[in-house]
Specification:
The chain is mainly β. It contains one helix and eleven strands; from the N terminus they run αβββββββββββ.
């Protein structure tokens, strides 16, 4: 459809970009809410037979709780000396794809949204992370992530970094 205007004055491309970004924003918002939540959430919804509302208590889904070390047991340390900078992305690996060797210079929170991620670390250590796994990735350790399965792997990653410090170093 290209740049042709829709009845509301927006272009088709602009609408599609917004629609593609919405799931990313929702996942990031959900992770933020989960990370910040320390109590239960109360949801009100209309009762089936009256105008009154009923309250349903929904406990938070804790993905990672008070983690203080990486998958290798390294203590989490934050970059200092520079202003903090947090970045996030969703990494997608099709069946057979891999990230290529790399390392992270800052703490990285990861959550496997779909599929199973297999990571080979320096020294031949192999770890497998199925969908639903939350982790703090190794810092300064070379590794390669692979999709050895038959379905797409999607990982939400959040870098807890600082200005001027590389989140990822490709090797």
């Amino acid at each position: 459809m290209g740049d042709s205007a829709l009845p509301n004055g927006k272009t088709y491309d602009a609408v599609m970009r917004t629609r593609r970004l919405l799931p990313v924003a929702l996942v990031a918002f959900a992770v933020l809410l989960t990370a910040c939540s320390t109590s239960t959430t109360v949801v009100s919804r209309p009762a089936a037979t009256s105008d009154a509302t009923q309250s349903v208590t929904v406990p938070p889904l804790v993905l990672l709780d008070k983690q203080s070390s990486t998958v290798f047991g390294q203590p989490l340390t934050y970059p200092t000396g520079q202003p903090a900078q947090v970045s996030s992305a969703i990494i997608t690996l099709l069946p057979g794809q891999q990230t290529g060797p790399h390392r992270h210079e800052v703490p990285l929170y990861g959550y496997v949204l779909e599929g199973t991620l297999t990571v080979t670390y320096d020294g031949g250590v192999v770890k497998t992370y199925p969908a639903g796994t939350a982790l703090m990735e190794a810092i300064g350790t070379t590794h390669n992530g692979q999709n050895l399965g038959t379905v797409t792997v999607r990982i939400l990653v959040t870098f807890i970094g600082a200005q001027g410090v590389a989140n990822t170093v490709k090797l």
